[in-house]
Design goal:
- With 240 residues, the chain is of the alpha/beta class.
- It has one domain: Uracil-DNA glycosylase-like domain (Uracil-DNA Glycosylase, subunit E).
- It is built from eight helices and six strands.
- The protein has a six-stranded mixed sheet with strand order 1-3-2-4-6-5.
- Strand 5 and strand 6 form a beta hairpin.
- Helix 1 runs antiparallel to helix 5, helix 4 crosses helix 8 and helix 5 packs across helix 6.
- The protein starts with a helix and ends in a 13-residue tail after the last helix.
Length: 240
């Protein structure tokens, strides 16, 4: 089995990070003040490490933890509607053991998939600054260096997509003459890495119909077919 000591070491350093004063204040304030529906729960209130299979061929790069999602539960895309949309699509494409990710002890396992983010702390208004993204970038670079089997990268939202592109280029894994453009389900083959853009499954996109379940599932079925060309999806009309 591959040595996974890198994961334990990186997770410890991510969780202990206090490099961005604005984000530290915000995440801790949210964890202390909470919202009424979660008033009885203890919030995580710290940066979030990546989550998933260290030998994954699919890497997902999101924006940042949600204030009352990951910042509460302590796991990426867990405990909020964005996570419900994401994990349902991942389950249908064979990357997740179950459709719902509610808390760290819920038994969720990712198969051949690893989830991370451009920023590890919940930011005010879901908008980390360029400087905060830059300070967080070394964690993503370490993950890229360690996740040697990755063949497909899905960038959720423009920030996640561009963070993935720039980090893989900085790591020397990809190059381009013209920077790939963001657009839902756009697929870019850059050397040995396929990068797929997706709208973020935020409520702003899902509630307005800009992103449907079928559109999100298409992204991960495309990722699966890139990894496993013989893959034949199971068609469920209710999830199209």
């Amino acid at each position: 089995m591959k040595d996974r000591a890198w994961k334990l070491d990186l997770d410890r350093r991510v969780v202990a990070c206090r490099a961005c004063p604005r984000l530290v204040r915000w995440r801790e304030t949210v964890a202390r003040e909470k919202v009424r529906r979660f008033a009885g729960q203890e919030y995580w209130g710290k940066p979030l490490p990546g989550f998933g299979d260290p030998e994954a061929r699919l890497l997902i790069v999101g924006l940042a933890p949600a204030a009352h999602g990951g910042n509460r539960t302590g796991r990426m895309f867990t405990g909020d509607e964005s996570g419900n949309w994401l994990f349902r699509a991942l389950h249908d494409a064979g990357f997740a053991s179950q459709e719902v990710s509610s808390h760290r002890g819920d038994g969720m396992n990712l198969r051949d998939c690893y989830i991370t983010a451009a920023a590890r702390c919940a930011p005010p208004a879901n908008k980390p600054s360029p400087a905060e993204l830059w300070r967080c970038r070394p964690f993503l670079l370490e993950e890229i260096a360690a996740l040697k089997n990755v063949k497909v990268v899905v960038g959720l939202g423009r920030i996640g997509f561009e963070a993935a592109l720039e980090a893989y280029r900085a790591a020397g894994r990809i190059e381009w003459k013209k920077k790939p453009e963001f657009g839902h389900a756009r697929t870019h083959t850059l050397g040995g890495i396929t990068v797929i853009a997706s709208y973020h499954p935020s409520q702003q996109n899902t509630f307005t119909g800009r992103l449907t379940r079928g559109m999100l599932l298409k992204v991960f079925r495309t990722a699966r077919s890139c990894i496993q060309p013989t893959y034949v999806p199971r068609i469920d009309p209710q999830k199209q």
